[in-house]
Write a structure and sequence with these properties.
The protein has a domain of 85 residues: Nucleotidyltransferase, domain 5, CATH 3.30.420.270. It is built from 4 helices and 7 strands; from the N terminus they run H-H-E-E-E-E-H-E-H-E-E. The strands form 2 sheets. A 5-stranded mixed beta sheet has the order 4-3-2-5-6, with helices on one face. A two-stranded parallel ribbon has the order 1-7. Strand 2 and strand 3 form a beta hairpin.
């Protein structure tokens, strides 16, 4: 005669309920996504001019970089001056409250700067700033 072992139903159903832990992980993920500030870069380093009246601004969602040789960079890629308007319109559609900050090298041509500003205005942006380093007083 064989003896059978009988396990209680509690031992067979012993599982760890993962639902509360997954809920906490997803809530933490949402919290970090919401609180993270996304920094956009124009894609190049420029030697900005100094200005005594320079002010730090936190709003500047559309960054346009102009190198000393006249290259224009938006979203870490080089663009032609004729493509600035289309890029600004696209970025403005993503963020309607966006402002443009132009990071022009101090040796960059003023003509290129004016063309970029004109294209940004034609793209629908009214708030355009030029980046500068604050001089030490």
């Amino acid at each position: 005669m064989k003896t059978r072992r009988h396990f209680s139903s509690q031992e067979e159903d012993a599982e760890i309920n993962m639902t509360p832990m997954l809920d906490i992980v997803f809530i933490m993920l949402i919290f970090f996504i919401v609180t993270t500030s996304f920094i956009k870069e124009s894609g190049i380093e420029v030697n900005r001019p100094d200005a005594k009246s320079a002010q730090r601004t936190e709003r500047g969602n559309i960054l346009i970089g102009i190198r000393q040789n006249g290259e224009i960079w938006i979203d870490q890629r080089a663009v032609d001056v004729r493509a600035v308007r289309a890029n600004v319109e696209r970025l403005l559609a993503e963020n309607p409250e966006g402002a443009v900050v132009i990071q022009a090298d101090r040796e960059a041509s003023t003509g290129t700067l004016v063309q970029v500003m004109d294209q940004a205005r034609l793209g629908g942006v009214t708030n355009i700033s030029i980046a500068a380093n604050a001089e030490a007083h």
